[in-house]
User: Fold this.
Amino acid sequence: MPSPASAPSPPASSGTPTGSPAAPPLRDAADRTPLVVVLAGGLSHERDVSLRSGRRVAEALRSTGLEAVLHDVDADLLAFLRDARPDVVWPLLHGASGEDGSVRDVLDMLGLPYVGTGPRASRVVWNKPISKAALLDAGLSTPDYVTLPQSLFRDLGAQPVLDTIVRRLGLPLVVKPTEGGSALGVTMVSRAEELPRAMVECFAYGETALIERAVTGVELAVSVIDGPRGPEALPAVEIVADGGYDYAARYVAGETEFFAPARLTAEQAAQVSDVAVRAHVALHLRHLSRTDLILDASGTAQILEVNVAPGMTEMSLLPQAVAASGRDLAALYRTVVDTALARARQG
Assistant:
């Protein structure tokens, strides 16, 4: 197999998040308006998506009366957080460091409350094969798969390994990096001769590939929010994309058709909601998550992956689910922040 090409350049960035302060905002001691710092940007391939999500969340929180500022993950961040001492931090970072638990580890070391899952559970979810194993242990379904590092292809020879994959899993297949999001490096493989190129594209985004049996059916995303009575699922969003739900299909208007709520029977809707809540609990997630799955022809909900930092752009799936539920998006974001604040006060 040829050596992988260099990773494609990240999507064009919008630069420093609008509203990122050069210095911490001055806060009077009597000012009891909670300060929320929204972290957006970072240096991953998903930087642009993160910036768009961060801006929308910050604007929504301001509309509820909170003080919300955006800040990038840069050399000024730690000093800013130490000086500003925000009441809550909301990491809206995608990709490495944003979802692998490392930024959350830093926030824990600083003693700052934050929205979202803790670092240990984030690491489990960030690594797709590990999270799939945890889901299987919880009695949930996920497509059959193998996980192979790039070094194995060099050691054993690419073609024999590829032939073994096809014999073991059959066709079609989906090849994706074990870590990452926004469908970057993901390829659907219908014919065996397409597999080498798919591996090359995958290895451009990471050293290890997850190769799983492709599942056909209704593609759905089910968001879960922690409420007063525990985690609750929002209405499922159905995704209809020609050629696969890739990066362009996710973030370019008009590329994909969404149905929110999804076109499901009441029984199917209850089933996928239950699966998403069970995944949220099994993976020890907190505040909010999104489970991507396919309801196959047999009626089984096959989990593709779970996200600890769902996108919040104008095309993202969680905001669409909130709209389908009839709830106000800004009010729900405020509830999420209030939940994080309450948990911090309880210790």
Observations:
- Residues 7-116+328-347 form a domain with the Rossmann fold fold (CATH 3.40.50.20).
- The mean pLDDT is 88.
- The longest helix spans residues 329-346.
- The chain has three domains: 7-116+328-347, 124-140+215-308, 145-213.
